[in-house]
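Work Package 3 (structural annotation) set out to generate three-dimensional models for the target panel prioritized at the project kickoff. During this period the team completed the workflow that converts sequence records into discrete structure tokens, so that structures can be stored uniformly alongside our sequence database. As a representative example, we reproduce one entry of 255 residues exactly as it appears in the project archive.
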Amino acid sequence: MDTKTLSNIGLTNGEIKVYLTLLKLGSTTSGPLTDKSGVSRSKIYNILERLIQKGLVSYIIKEKTKYFQAAEPTKIKEYLENKEKEFQEQKKEIDKILPELEAQQRSSEKVKEAQIFKGFRGIQTVQEHLYLKLKKNEEYFYFGIPSFQEEKYHLYWQKDHLRRIEAGIKCKLLFNQGTDKKVLKNRNSYMGCDARYMPISIETPAWIMGYKDVTVIGLQSKEGIAIEIINQEIADSFKKYFESFWILTKKLLNK
């Protein structure tokens, strides 16, 4: 019998051996159970106690001797249902203390001001950090967005724009001049997004993203890398760079 499923629901190797042995033996004392299960006598009672707590084993006393018996296999489903209830309760408890934990993280002097994220997933993670800080009607900006991006990036950005719209967040995007106009038209089709061309002809795979006190320097190379800097002074300086570019641009006509 493949016991992997029983292991996946949280039963230890010893618990699985004892439970399956009890199913075969029926009501029995610890002696035969130890011999047949291959579990040492020093561990058998601890394992039985855990299985009793999980509702998978019961016992009766006859003439001052304990006889153990496996609960019917359907009790395994009941055990899982109880675990699910406990899990949901734990989630509620975590939800209660999350604001306090997040406040402690924000106020901690030990929080790193710069972090490096690598790969496609890393760039996604950096992007999704903005949903922790930005509120409805607030915005973020990008400039120097490269003219070429792998298709997986385009698919991700399109999906993220739907999330952005749902959150009520706006964005301003400046793409390098060599970018296909279809890309900008696509981004402008999403509510709250204003995508334009950079006012200067410069081609680089690096881009800058900013909001609040956050600045991200990204490189969508084959590996992908993003450096997230949390510093208000740096964020303010890059925002000025962005604004100096933005005032030189024109809104894209969707023709």
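The CA atoms of residues 206 and 243 lie 18 Å apart.
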